[in-house]
Amino acid sequence: MEINKLLSDSGLKCTKQRINVMKLLTEARVPLTAESIFEMSDEISLSTVYRIVEKLCEKGIVSKKTIQDSDRFYYELTGGHHRHYAICLGCGEMKSVNICPMHTPEVSDFTVTGHKLEIYGYCGKCAGKINLQTSV
C-alpha cells in the first residue's frame, strides 16, 4: 500500500506525522491504541496522535474499535477487509483470528454495515498462571 497515495486520494496532506502513524498501523499485526502509537513514535505528541487517528477514521482509512469492558479505543487500517480477535482476559494480548465465521447477515428492513466478534479466554502464559494459582 502506498501511504502517500492513500492520504492524498483521501484529501489529506502527506505530513511527516501522518506518514509515521500510517507506517505504524501498516506494520501492526493487531489494532493499536493511540497511547501505543505515541510510545512507538518518538517524534509525535499524544494529542497529535489522537488528532491524526481521528482524522484517518473520518476519511475511512482507519477503523476505531472498542473491546468489551474497556474504555480504550483501538485503531487499525481498514484495507477493505475486517478482522476478528481473540483477547486474553489476563494480560489483554490480542491475537488475530484468520477466519470470519459470520457472513454479512440479511436482516429485514435493515442495512447491515458491519459486525464485531470478539473471542475471550486466556493466552498460554496467563492460563499457566491460573492453573498454578488454582492448584495451590
Gist of the model:
By secondary structure, this protein is an alpha+beta fold. It has 5 helices and 5 strands.
Q: Mind explaining what this structure looks like?
A:
This protein is 38% helix and 17% strand. The longest helix is centred in the middle third of the chain and has 13 residues, at 46-58. A 3-stranded mixed beta sheet has the order 4-3-5, with no helix packed on it. With 136 residues, it is of the alpha+beta class. Mean pLDDT is 82; it is low at 132-136. It has 5 helices and 5 strands, in the order ααααβββββα. The chain starts with a helix and ends with a helix. It has helices at 3-9, 16-27, 34-40, 46-58, 124-135; strands at 62-66, 73-77, 84-88, 94-97, 118-121. Strand 3 and strand 4 (94-97) form a beta hairpin.
Largest sheet: 3 strands, mixed
Low-pLDDT sequence parts:
132-136
The number of helical segments is 5
Helix/strand-derived class? alpha+beta
End-to-end separation in angstroms reads 51 Å
Mean pLDDT: 82
Number of strands: 5
Share in helix: 25-40%
Please state the CA-atom Rg, rounded to the nearest Å: 18 Å
H/E series, N to C?
Answer: HHHHEEEEEH
List keywords for this structure.
single chain; 136 residues; alpha+beta; three-stranded mixed beta sheet; 5 strands; 38% helix
Secondary-structure blueprint:
Layout: H1 3-9, H2 16-27, H3 34-40, H4 46-58, E1 62-66, E2 73-77, E3 84-88, E4 94-97, E5 118-121, H5 124-135
Parallel strand pairs: 3-5
Antiparallel strand pairs: 1-2, 3-4
